[in-house]
Amino acid sequence: MSTKSKGTLIALIGIAIWSTSGVLISYLLINYPFTSLSLAFWRNLIISIFLLPVLIIFRRKSLILDKQHIVFTLFYGIFLAVFNSIWVLSVFYNGAAVATVLAYSSAGFTAILAYFIFQEKITGPKVAAIILSLSGSVLVSKAYSTEMWANNPLGIGVGLTTGAFFAGYTLFGKASLLRNIDPWGSMFFTFLTGSGFILIFNLIPMIPGAAGSFHAIMPAMEPAGWAWMIFLSLGPTLLGFGMYNISMMFIPASVTNILATTEPAMTAIQAYFFLGEQLNWVQVLGSLIILSAVLILRLSEK
């Protein structure tokens, strides 16, 4: 298997895993007493708590951070905190479907920023893939429905901001690898730092979705709620983001981000098999359009 094929496969597996996150976030916000930012806090903290003993046992060198990387990791953590917080808010305001589509405005942002920062070329096939993937995402998520967009300017603004921060997160991940920072160690430090900043966000009442106090950050609920929270943290978030970051060791960041636009199609397929939700012909068409975008990328990268 070629290096590019390996990177593409790792990215697609990671994206398939994290494609359940929007649905799980919606489920937790609806059924359990989490606020948007308290959920984001626990997701980051649980990942940090889980990674620490695992890295101590299996990858102790990952926990050794060079002095020149401390400031970079701090800013990476701040960026992750804001990205995670805005993403959860977007799901709250828009619902999982529209939030997912808006997040993938990041494909264009990433291609443009990667051109200036990493000198990644903006080729004709890449532009075509961006347009096709975004169009397919709109169809799969039914974001073409005016009912999903009407009277929600705040939600749309938050969602588009998510796209910009998703692009930034992708580029931070690429920069981390170029600095030879271990990807799992990088995840530990950034999620730990991120949880600290999200804790601060939660204590500022005027921020939308903030818990407002230490007491409200830890809601009283049945064990099933915490079980779902742990599953969200260690499955879609940790494993999904981890594989997404590792894929950038083999393929350009802009390509990885375009591949991520397969998520809406994956979510629709999962809903069909596990929830019995039917795919209409528009969603099938959207899925095929997204897959065509991935095919264009693979052929152009050969």
Question: What is the structure about, briefly put?
Answer:
With about 300 residues, the protein is mainly α. The chain has helices spanning about 5-20, 20-30, 35-60, 65-105, 105-115, 125-140, 145-150, 155-180, 185-200, 215, 225-245, 255-260, 265-275, 280-300. The protein has one domain (about 5-300).
Characterization of this structure:
The chain is mostly helical and 302 residues long. The protein has one domain. The chain is 78% helix and 0% strand. The protein is built from 14 helices and no strands. The chain has helices spanning 3-18, 21-31, 36-58, 67-103, 106-117, 124-140, 146-149, 153-178, 183-202, 214-217, 223-247, 253-259, 263-275, 281-301. It starts with a helix and ends with a helix. 51% of the residues are buried. The mean pLDDT is 80.
Descriptors for this entry?
302 residues, mainly alpha, globular
